[in-house]
Amino acid sequence: MKIAWFSPLPPKKSGIADFSSNVIPYLKKVSELSLFVEDYCPQYSFTKGCLVIPYVERDKIDWKVMEKLEDYDLVFFNMSNDFRFHSYAYELLLRFPGIVILHDYVLQFFYAGYYLIIKRNFSGYVEKFKELYSLDLVNAQSLKEGPSAVLNFLKKIYEDQSILQYPMNEEIISKSSCVITHSFFALEKIKKYNLSKPAFKLNLPFTLSEENIASLSQKNVLLSPHRGKEKLVAATFGYVLPNKAYESIFKVLQNSSFLQQNMEYWIIGGTFFWYNIHSLVKKYQLKNIVKVFDYQQPAQVIELLSQADICIALRAPTMGETSSSLLNMMLMAKPVVVLNSGWYKELPDDCVLKIDPCCVEKQLEEILLEAFEERQKLREIGIRAKEYILMYHTPYQYVENLIDCSQKLNIRSETK
Length: 416
Prior knowledge:
It contains 21 helices and 15 strands. It is an alpha/beta fold. The chain folds into 2 domains: 2-107 and 169-205 and 395-415, Rossmann fold (3-Layer(aba) Sandwich), CATH 3.40.50.2000; 210-392, Rossmann fold.
């Protein structure tokens, strides 16, 4: 079987690159695997044994690639909300329908970045929105504001959580031959609005490498030791974005003198200039409690998370996304606090600490205060979390199910 795989790969700093680097070893065991990349050289350790085919040169697609794709049994396009890594694959998908692995249900920010930054075409986004929803995005006055009108619109629908009504995924789904998603939340919405489109839900695999997992076992850091009178450490891992409810967490810390005196909150992940987490820390006067580590290499992430007593992985609003960073924290046997909504609601109740989206600050404070007295309970939750991930979220299982779904659909005949 010949497989074509479109995805960012290391050294690109992308969650989808991490995802691909973990499933590629299993994909190449069951196929002749070709990795289609843009104009960069992926790390050899991830591409050994595969055919690497660049299909972009000088910011343009080499359209001869379409002739090559005719020779493949299965063609996969990984798509996420990050326009930096999927714009060329999107353009190719419009001409050559393949199996779309939809990592994000809402693609609003992909289209905004694609038109406003890649294409420098403000009106292109406006027209695409109107094409999909038969609605005028901007009026005559806001049209004069140019791209800022789109940004203001995105901010509004993001904050009032109406963004799920306008996911802007319809075009990509319609052009695909099949859609793979990672949550029942997203699957149900896709099937509701795309009745004839084959769609399946597979469990997202963890992205820690085998080397990192082996390192964890050797260091025996899956459970942080009882810290006596030392401060309790809570941590959030992953790209620092506004929907991770940092302000709610900061309000909890600001309102509790006990937590301020007895705990630290670590933020581990890449930051963006347009969301200044450092200013937010200063605003809430938490510089002595909150530590921002910015982007860290995998080994450093493991070292930091190994010292955490509890992790916080809130998404407010949730937009149908799944979280590999959460899976990795669970794999490290960490008890994790999540909102009881979206994909997070689908996780077993005894493997994570779920809080009501309507009572975030109240319930989060209760959990953090209880953590000082319930360390053993937290460790037991972490153990169950690790067992669950190893049972249902391995890269091996993912590839096995991915191939099984694709072959059942006889995708080759549908794409040619």
